[in-house]
Amino acid sequence: xxxxxxxxxxxxxxxxxxxxxxxxxxxxxxxxxxxxxxxxxxxxxxxxxxxxxxxxxxxxxxxxxxxxxxxxxxxxxxxxxxxxxxxxxxxxxxxxxxxxxxxxxxxxxxxxxxxxxxxxxxxxxxxxxxxxxxxxxxxxxxxxxxxxxxxxxxxxxxx
Length: 159
Known about the structure:
globular; mainly alpha; 6 helices
């Protein structure tokens, strides 16, 4: 049976994985202006590929800890309580969805980690994983992607 915590962590992971891929595409392609925007408010709906990637990452975290995500999250809250941080963390930087955001960023080796705002979780580790969502993000673009023409100086067999 799925829990609310599990669903929120999974949503957090999927949101960051898809948001990062889509934002990277629009920045490179220039097909959408994200200046001063929250990516999550403008990105297309999270596709099944991102949900699948999020599920793989969630499973990898659970496997690395031989524990369910609900228990790992409980350990994170306990670490905050033991270090006197509970109650001092702003609302937008706590909760299971935020925990999922941090797992996603940490797995990519970028962005915000849980311990930027929270106490370290004893023996916690996030597996590094690669996600191939950039190509899919480009396929959702309504504008054609320009390709460079090959120079005429190349021999015919190389064109």
